């Protein structure tokens, strides 16, 4: 054990120094750190330990995309397609076009009509046709006809899954734009499982505003208010609300949508020039502007409704053709509301309703308290363990303590390099490994003492101590390591942080407690030529 | 130079005789744990039971516990749990899972915010909907089951069957008592408690492995020595190490319990309990079992032999 080649000594020392260097940025203030980081090449890992939301404060919100809502929209779209095709082919049906669950059904009495319709519909079902490899894309729906003329179209599982997946992608984009508008730093937005989105916003104080921004679908529609004597089947009865949430009036609104939110190119909060109340100014894209111009020209004098998520915001009368491609929404807004609505309109509508399924918010005050408490616990634990090792093993205890110090530095360096998140349970994990790190040293030292009591020479006792204890150290630590791995894969957030520190701690323990202590003792032996073991 | 020692050198204490005390004691504690677990059950936190946990701090003066408690009735939220901790301005406010799915949980939070938002700062808000809590129960259970399987596999490869069974019984003993600890102390049982339990399994196995390795070494060295003596010698040999390590780990955990803040207090407390039980069971439960199971024969003993380095 005492033939340490020079390169090995150098690399062990270099590794420790490197670990210390990697940890240094975490102790600098943010400004200094970023200042230095700018002057370094980008591959230099000059950044601080990433703190979990439980330490730096912030909001963790898990949202679920309403798959039923996505399917409903999909069935609606299919029904519109069917209606269009039947109209184009001039096919006569009995009754209406029904849609429920994931099925659209229509009754076509004439067999020839049915055939014609089905040919068109089947083309529709395979929008991708046959791809380059000659494989037909999976159909989005399956059709079934019964002899009495009933045609049923049912969405396939894969089509629904695909649509939900795309809805989640779209949702992530929309949420990103909305959260960016909050002006917070580095929000983390990511997919979780099939239909969930995780939003993490560090340092956020007002979660209410975030939740409101996330909870609004923001589907904006411009629809005409129906003329008196309308047909019940062609209109939706929609309510207008006052700020307290009471219904102020109800409008019969045509089902047909003139223009919708996706035709907006911009929306900005502003003030009405005459009344001075907060409003949202918007601009249509070319298609939206043309369409809006046409409809307003044809319906001068009639009211139209501006509808957000099924609620009428206002129903102004068309005073003249609006052809400029821009407009204004007013609706007794507060400044904040006008602001948020323009953010929502700019970011676009969510493809489906979102539900908050989990929320964990930690205020910055509690986060700081947790950091302080974690630090204190780490210091107290370190001092206790250092003193205990020193009084028990003397100079060997000092070696173990030095190794322990490097161990803690290495765990932090590992966290920095992996860009892993340090959470409060993660700090607990580190404190725990402080207790466990000396375990390896204790195993070795006790073994050395034992071997020396059996009458071995100093050198052979040291040698036997290290060698015999090593197998046990690996065994003992590997059990805890397995647990850390399992926890990593099962846990999320704080628990995962615990698993990472625990696992890292076990790996560095073996490096520091075994290799480093061995080096220190070897050097000490060369230098002092002891005649007895000082433990 | 002065050396601090908790266990004297060359100690020879008849640990195996103590099994006549430790076995009935452990049997009693195990039965107590099972009874506590079945009658009292665990005090599930919001991770597993769902619901809302808020940590409030009074903006000025004391937190008014009575008023906060009456909110449950006033806002029709069902039973609420209000607990003071730390200074007299801090409370935790817990609402049970509301009927009506994920949306109802958020509505409940809104109601509380509207009423107490003026006087209290929201230091922490955790809302776990019914489906997430269900999933956490699943992954928590899966975690415990997987670790048990991992442990069993590890022991299967590492040791002869007698030693492996002894280790399994000791680990199960520790698991059982820890569950009892949770049931009796009414510590909140959350996903971090699962982390604590799994860590306890790791730590307890760590202790067991150290003792078993030594027993196996002794078995190879002294083939004629009777089993109880082998075990006693082994336990005495590793005793100072066990005491050392337990002490350092306990020091670390105790500083977490005392200074680590209320958020992880129960986490650290559970691990501390597990650590003590793990050390105890490695000596008083695991080792004596070998007296009953007998020594693995020589052929078996060679199976796990490790080659020592130069």
What does this structure look like?
The complex is a heterodimer of chains A (535) and B (310). Chain A is of the alpha+beta class and 535 residues long. Chain A has three domains: 6-56 and 363-528, Up-down Bundle (Multidrug efflux transporter AcrB transmembrane fold), CATH 1.20.1640; 67-162, Aspartate Aminotransferase, domain 1 (Alpha-Beta Complex), CATH 3.90.1150; 216-360, Gyrase A, domain 2 (2-Layer Sandwich). Chain A contains 13 helices and 19 strands. Chain A has a four-stranded antiparallel β-sheet with strand order 7-8-2-18. Chain A has a four-stranded antiparallel β-sheet with strand order 3-4-6-5. In chain A, a hairpin with a 2-residue loop joins β15 (304-308) and β16. In chain A, α4 (67-88) crosses α5 (111-125) and α4 crosses α6 (157-180). The longest helix of chain A is centred in the C-terminal third of the chain and has 55 residues, at 364-418. Chain A starts with 5 loop residues before the first helix and ends in a 7-residue tail after the last helix. By secondary structure, chain B is an alpha+beta fold. Chain B has helices at residues 19-39, 46-49, 65-74, 101-116, 130-158, 161-185, 191-221, 227-259, 265-293, 298-303, and strands spanning 43-44, 51-58, 80-84, 90-95, 120-128, 188-189. Mean pLDDT of chain B is 86; it is low at 298-310. Chain B starts with 18 loop residues before the first helix and ends in a 7-residue tail after the last helix. In chain B, the strands form two sheets. Chain B has a four-stranded antiparallel β-sheet with strand order 3-4-2-5. A two-stranded parallel sheet of chain B has the order 1-6. In chain B, α5 (130-158) packs antiparallel against α6 (161-185), α6 runs antiparallel to α7 (191-221) and α7 (191-221) runs antiparallel to α8. The longest helix of chain B is centred in the last third of the chain and has 33 residues, at 227-259. Chain B folds into two domains: 15-44 and 133-303, Multidrug efflux transporter AcrB transmembrane fold; 51-128, Alpha-Beta Plaits (2-Layer Sandwich), CATH 3.30.70.3400. Helices cover 66% and strands 10% of the residues of chain B. Classes of the chains: A alpha+beta (535), B alpha+beta (310). At the A-B interface, α7, β18, α10, α11 and α12 of A face α4, β5, α5, α7 and α8 of B. β18 (354-362) of chain A pairs antiparallel with β5 (120-128) of chain B.
């Amino acid at each position: 054990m005492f033939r340490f080649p020079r390169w090995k000594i150098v690399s062990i020392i270099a590794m420790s120094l490197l670990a210390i260097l990697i940890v240094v940025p975490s102790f600098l203030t943010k400004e200094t750190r970023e200042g230095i980081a700018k002057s370094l090449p980008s591959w230099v890992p000059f950044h601080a330990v990433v703190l979990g939301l439980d330490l730096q404060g912030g909001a963790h919100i898990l949202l679920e995309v309403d798959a039923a809502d996505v399917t409903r929209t999909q069935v609606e779209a299919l029904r519109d397609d069917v209606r269009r095709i039947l109209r184009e082919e001039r096919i006569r049906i009995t009754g209406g076009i029904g849609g429920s669950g994931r099925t659209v059904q229509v009754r076509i009495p004439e067999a020839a009509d049915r055939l014609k319709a089905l040919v068109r519909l089947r083309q529709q079902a395979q929008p991708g046709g046959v791809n380059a490899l000659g494989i037909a894309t999976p159909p989005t729906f399956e059709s079934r006809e019964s002899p009495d003329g009933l045609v049923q179209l049912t969405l396939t599982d894969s089509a629904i899954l695909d649509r939900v997946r795309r809805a989640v992608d779209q949702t992530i984009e929309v949420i990103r734009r909305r959260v960016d508008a909050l002006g917070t730093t580095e929000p983390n937005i990511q997919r979780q499982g099939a239909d969930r989105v995780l939003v993490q916003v560090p340092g956020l104080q007002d979660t209410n505003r975030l939740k409101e921004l996330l909870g609004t679908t923001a589907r904006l529609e411009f629809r005409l208010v129906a003329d008196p004597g309308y047909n019940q089947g062609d209109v939706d009865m929609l309510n207008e609300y006052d700020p307290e949430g009471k219904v102020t009036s109800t409008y019969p609104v045509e089902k047909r949508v003139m223009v919708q939110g996706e035709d907006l190119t911009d929306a900005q909060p502003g003030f009405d020039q005459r009344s001075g109340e907060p409003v949202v100014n918007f601009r249509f894209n070319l298609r939206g502007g043309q369409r809006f111009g046409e409809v307003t020209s044809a319906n001068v004098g009639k009211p139209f409704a501006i509808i957000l998520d099924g609620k009428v915001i206002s129903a102004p009368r068309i005073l003249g053709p609006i052809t400029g491609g821009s407009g204004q929404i007013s609706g007794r807004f507060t400044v904040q509301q006008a602001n948020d609505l323009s953010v929502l309109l700019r970011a676009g509508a969510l493809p489906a309703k979102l539900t908050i399924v989990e929320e964990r918010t930690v205020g910055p005050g509690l986060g700081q308290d947790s950091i302080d408490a974690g630090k204190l616990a780490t210091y107290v634990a370190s001092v206790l363990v250092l003193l205990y090792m020193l009084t028990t093993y003397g100079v060997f205890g000092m070696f173990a303590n030095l190794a322990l110090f490097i161990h803690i530095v290495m765990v932090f360096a590992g966290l920095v390099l992996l860009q892993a998140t340090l959470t409060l349970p993660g700090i607990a994990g580190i404190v725990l490994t402080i207790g466990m790190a000396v375990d390896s040293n204790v195993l070795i030292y006790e073994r050395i003492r034992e071997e020396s009591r059996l009458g071995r020479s100093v050198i052979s006792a040291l040698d036997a101590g290290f060698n015999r204890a090593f197998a046990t150290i690996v065994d003992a630590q590997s059990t805890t390591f397995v647990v850390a791995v399992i926890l990593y894969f099962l846990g999320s957030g704080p628990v995962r942080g615990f698993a990472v520190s625990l696992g890292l701690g076990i790996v560095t323990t073996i490096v520091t407690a075994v290799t480093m202590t061995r080096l220190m003792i070897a050097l000490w032996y060369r230098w002092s030529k002891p005649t007895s073991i000082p433990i | 130079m002065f050396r601090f020692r908790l266990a004297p050198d060359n100690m020879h204490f008849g640990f195996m005789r103590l099994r006549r005390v430790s076995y009935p004691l452990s049997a009693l504690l195990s039965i107590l744990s099972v009874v506590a677990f079945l009658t009292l059950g665990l005090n599930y936190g919001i991770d597993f039971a769902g619901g809302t946990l808020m940590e409030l701090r009074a903006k000025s003066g004391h937190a008014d516990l009575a008023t906060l408690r009456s909110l449950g009735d006033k806002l029709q939220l069902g039973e609420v749990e209000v607990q003071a901790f730390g200074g007299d301005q801090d409370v935790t406010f817990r609402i049970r899972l509301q009927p009506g799915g994920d949306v109802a949980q958020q509505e409940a939070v809104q109601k509380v915010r509207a009423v107490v938002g003026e006087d209290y700062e929201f230091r922490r808000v955790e809302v776990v909907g019914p489906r997430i809590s269900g999933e956490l129960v699943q992954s928590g259970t899966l975690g415990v089951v997987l670790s048990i399987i991992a442990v069993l596999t590890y022991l299967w490869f590492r040791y002869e069957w007698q030693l492996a069974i002894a280790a399994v019984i000791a680990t199960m003993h520790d698991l059982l008592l820890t569950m009892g600890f949770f049931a009796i102390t009414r510590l909140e049982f959350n996903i971090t408690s699962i982390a604590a339990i799994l860590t306890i399994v790791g730590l307890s196995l760590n202790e067991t492995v150290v003792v078993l390795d030594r027993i196996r070494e002794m078995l190879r060295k002294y083939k004629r020595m009777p089993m109880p003596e082998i075990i006693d010698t082994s336990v005495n040999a590793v005793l100072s190490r066990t005491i050392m390590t337990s002490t350092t780990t306990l020091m670390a955990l105790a500083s977490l319990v005392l200074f680590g803040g209320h958020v992880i207090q129960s986490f650290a407390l559970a691990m501390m309990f597990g650590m003590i039980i793990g050390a105890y069971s490695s000596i008083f439960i695991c080792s004596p079992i070998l007296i009953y199971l007998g020594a693995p024969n020589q052929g078996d003993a060679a199976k796990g032999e490790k080659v020592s380095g130069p």
